[in-house]
Amino acid sequence: MSTTASDRNFQAQFPENPHYGSGSYRRHIRLSQQAGAVLAELEDDCHGFRVHLQHDGRQVTAITAETLRIPYNTCASATEPLQAMVGVTLGSEPKTVIAQVNPFSNCTHLFDLTVLAIAHAVRSEPERLYAVEVTDEKDGQPADARVWLNGEEMLHLKTFQWQIIAPRELSDKPLFKGFAAWASEYFSGDLREAAFVLQKGYFVSSARRHDAKAMEGMRGDDTPYIPGACHTYTEGRVQQAVRLPNSRRDFTDTPEQLLKFK
Hints:
The chain has helices at residues 5-12, 94-100, 108-120, 179-186, 189-205, 212-215, and strands spanning 24-34, 37-44, 48-55, 60-69, 127-135, 143-149, 152-160, 163-166. The chain is α+β, with helices and mostly antiparallel strands. Strands 4-3-2-1-5-6-7-8 form an 8-stranded antiparallel sheet, covered by helices on one side. A hairpin with a 2-residue loop joins strand 1 (24-34) and strand 2. It is globular.
């Protein structure tokens, strides 16, 4: 599924980043086992989050979250909808959690991070570190999208405009609408989780196309948005949303700075 004219027009209504095409989007996610708890941390170009999930060995008993770096002022209150995940059974598949909790009332990234923490709570491994890199598309050439788990490359895709170009067996598979359906069938185990981590990062990587500095102070409805897509883009809240200053980072050449939340 390639992008449509409508998709391109949507992107064209954002101020362009003059440096796009010379770098990479990066995201790190760390999941750490603690006594009766999981600490889940995420940082990328646009976000910094921390989720502390407590459990009794069977289900989630409490969730607290920190919004350490966010694009909109309204993202800070996205910690509240996470409370609907208290009571979810540990080790639940993402589709099971989604059936119980409305993901669209949540911050997409906090919700996904909590789902990863729920899965990690039943593992014997003390820590799991995901690293994602998506290079900029340049001069009509495909991007490289990679995900590593604990230093081991799990998946390397050639991508162009939300579509997989290579490897050949995945050619023409979509990375946006329809991704979950085919990826859930094609991948399994750790590779399935890694594929979803990569896809979520790919989704955010498109923000590198936009000039974050030029958008500082703009309201949420000053640029195109999908109503109801997430916590901030809920009608009534998006009109109150304001883009925060100094919320964007570029980790192209400094991946070691990720998860330091500076």
